Amino acid sequence: MATWKKLSLLLSIIPILLLLAYGFKTNPREVPSPLVGRQAPPFAMTMFDGSSNSLEALRGKPVVLNFWASWCFPACYEEAPYLEAAWQAYRDRGLIVIGVDIQDRDADAKAFIERFKLSFPNAPDPQGKITIDYGVYGVPETFFIKRDGTIHYKHVGALDAKVLKAKIDEML
């Protein structure tokens, strides 16, 4: 009887160990988004500066939609200068960069924007609707939306200059 109990305990532990082993070898950045290749979910938001913006108003322009938070350290802090540099380099070619601040306090978000001298539009998502519509499960996450409104690419984690430039160039 004791042998049977040991065997059943061992058999119940093996699937858990296999699941853990799979989880440790899986890269969370490689989780495919079902939104890539589809129309981007519409959004309308009030920016931190009081202006309004919507995806519909941006139709015909490529958009980099970045989800971030002031408490997202170090990833959001690493990518902020690259996003600002991309905005400065490509806005004359029609590129729009928009930051969506999630699960944050306005004062902290505004301090983050000031710290990195972000001049591209940023808005809070206070009810989390945009975040949910885009299936964001962590920050930072960035969506590259083509001129026709379809999602070209989704990046999970901090962007670097190389990835940002490559994906923007593909859309332009």
Describe this structure in words.
With 172 residues, this protein is an alpha/beta fold. It has helices at residues 2-25, 75-90, 106-115, 129-133, 161-171, and strands at 44-46, 52-54, 63-68, 96-101, 122-124, 141-145, 151-156. The strands form 2 sheets. The protein has a 5-stranded mixed β-sheet, covered by helices on one side. Helix 2 crosses helix 5 (161-171). The protein is elongated. The mean pLDDT is 90.
Report the end-to-end length measured between terminal Cα atoms.
Answer: 70 Å
Number of domains: 1
Choose one word for the global shape: elongated
Order of neighbouring strands in the sheet with most strands: 5-4-3-6-7
Biggest sheet architecture: 5 strands, mixed
According to CATH, the fold-level topology is Glutaredoxin
DSSP helix fraction: 25-40%
Number of β-strand runs: 7
CATH class: Alpha Beta
Based on helices, strands and strand pairing, what is the structural class?
alpha/beta
- If you compute it from the alpha carbons, what radius of gyration comes out, rounded to the nearest whole angstrom? 20 Å
Task: State which percent range the strand residues make up.
Answer: 15-25%
CATH homolog superfamily? Glutaredoxin
Second rung of CATH, namely the architecture = 3-Layer(aba) Sandwich
Mean pLDDT figure: 90
Q: Helix and strand succession?
A: HEEEHEHEHEEH
The unreliable regions are none
Number of helices: 5
